[in-house]
Design a protein that fits this description.
27 strands, 473 residues, five-stranded antiparallel beta sheet
């Protein structure tokens, strides 16, 4: 009975502590700016608390953050049986779901079961891409094949999960597969213009140069969108980095930048495209390469080129750039991003590295070839009026974490959790094992905080202390 109780209590403590773990890393301030990890929900730090959640799935490909909420989209998750009037039988579909988490704590808040026209939404990879516009509206879009002539974009009611079709983006005369979109401005057209972009590719022949773009004016007709390349819905790019490229590699992502004045704020005139080709490339709307990783120092280059993702943000007038350092094949670590300050002229080649987040890893588990790594940012101020940024890093099938960045942010560091001997943020039997290995065999590689009772030494009494914590004594 005691043994059963021990295991059940251990399981409960694992879940509770796992949901509240941090990366246990210490980050030095750079140029007066600090970073602190708020929470991790990933394979490395949270372990079972992450892997036992439905977001640990290769259909949970993208995430976004707005209004203090993290939204993780998973296609075809929930089995739903619906009547089919045509056959008189029932049909089974797999409904898409959006999982919501508190951005400050990482705790799950609610699930949004997606519906369209009152029916469960179960399209294949129907919500593969999720994002938010600059006014807090959540949108989703499906992966589309080369046979699809249009890309539907839906706005999601964050209370009910009901989807509203905003528009079907016509691909025009050149149809390629698309996976991930980006959107800048106001999807409803009430507060600002709106621009939407996607990049075409072919999983069998990835060298496709086609970029899609659509535009609508503030106050415009929501049903009438025009092509964003001088009226055309697509343009075949001819400029690339490296120069020997002839198109964008598999599952490319695009990220539009905010303009610096009121007239260009949501024009999306400049944008990054990352297509597994030696780093993101900055383009202008006429297809010219503005900046690339060509002259970026070796130590700032990506460690693997099969993950795509980047974002820019400003903090206290400084321009920052966050980009994927490595996917799960990174050298030693995996699924990390670099956060850098752009240098003179806001150029990549003069940027200064601040931190690698997390310093260790989100995970190194094969994600079945998914190439998107989501980086979302939200601006705010702390209680003293200092600007700060909340940053989400998300890699499908490996996990996610949220960081605070700013002058007034208390720097993060290793956190000592009572009973947590090996520093993984959980209190389980593995902590007891680590203590035994240290006491009996002198092994200290797994010891993060061996002295659990505060007597200055590691002995059997520390083992008892950990057992008492597990048992709640």
């Amino acid at each position: 009975m005691k043994r059963i109780l021990l295991f059940s209590l251990t399981a409960v403590i694992t879940v509770i502590s796992g949901m509240a773990v941090t990366d246990n890393q210490s980050y030095e301030p750079v140029n007066g700016i600090n970073v602190r990890n708020l929470w991790m929900l990933d394979r490395v730090h949270a372990k079972n608390a992450y892997t036992e959640l439905p977001i640990c799935h290769t259909n949970a490909r993208t995430a976004t953050m707005t209004g203090g909420v993290v939204y993780v989209s998973r296609s075809q998750e929930k089995q739903v049986i619906i009547p089919n009037p045509g056959t008189g039988r029932n049909d089974t579909i797999m409904q898409g779901v959006i999982h919501c988490f508190d951005a400050l704590t990482g705790m799950p808040t609610k699930d949004l079961d997606l519906t369209l026209n009152g029916e469960p939404y179960g399209v294949f990879l129907g919500n593969a891409s999720i994002g938010c516009d600059n006014f807090g509206h959540i949108w989703v879009a499906p992966m589309t094949s080369a046979a699809a002539s249009m890309i539907p974009v839906y706005m999601v009611d964050v209370e009910s999960g009901a989807m509203t079709l905003i528009t079907n983006m016509e691909k025009g005369d050149v149809m390629h597969r698309t996976d991930y979109l980006d959107l800048v401005g106001d999807l409803t057209l009430e507060n600002a213009e709106c621009n939407i972009m996607a990049v075409g590719h072919d999983s069998n022949n990835p060298g496709k140069p086609t970029v899609y773009r659509w535009h609508n004016d503030q106050g415009g007709d929501i049903d009438t969108w025009e092509g964003g390349f001088s009226g055309d819905p697509y343009m075949d790019f001819t400029n690339f980095y490296p120069e020997n490229r002839v198109g964008f590699a598999m599952a490319p992502v695009v990220k539009m930048l905010l303009g610096e004045d009121d007239n260009t704020r949501y024009s999306g005139e400049y944008f990054y495209i990352d297509g597994s080709d030696e780093g993101p490339v900055l383009y202008s709307v006429d297809g010219d390469v503005i900046d690339s990783f060509e002259n970026v120092p070796t130590e700032l280059r990506q460690r693997s080129f099969t993950a795509n993702g980047m974002n820019e943000f400003t903090l206290d007038g400084r321009h920052f750039f966050a980009y994927v350092r490595s996917d799960m094949n990174g050298d030693g670590n995996g699924c990390q991003i670099n956060v850098c300050e752009l240098g003179e002229g806001d150029m990549l080649e003069t940027m200064t590295k601040y931190w690698q987040l997390p310093a260790d890893s989100l995970g190194k588990v094969n994600d079945s070839g998914l190439r998107v790594h989501c980086i979302a940012v939200e601006k705010g101020v702390d209680e003293d009026g200092n600007e700060e940024v909340t940053l989400l890093t998300f890699k499908a099938f490996n996990g996610m974490g949220v960081y605070k960045i700013g002058k007034g942010v208390e720097p993060g560091g290793p956190v000592t959790v009572p009973g947590d001997v090996n520093g993984d943020g959980e209190v389980t039997g593995s902590d007891v094992t680590a203590l035994y290995n240290h006491i009996l065999f002198g092994q200290d590689t797994e010891i993060f905080n061996g002295d659990q009772n505060g007597d200055g030494e590691v002995t059997g009494s520390d083992v008892t202390a950990v057992y008492n914590i597990i048992l709640g004594l």
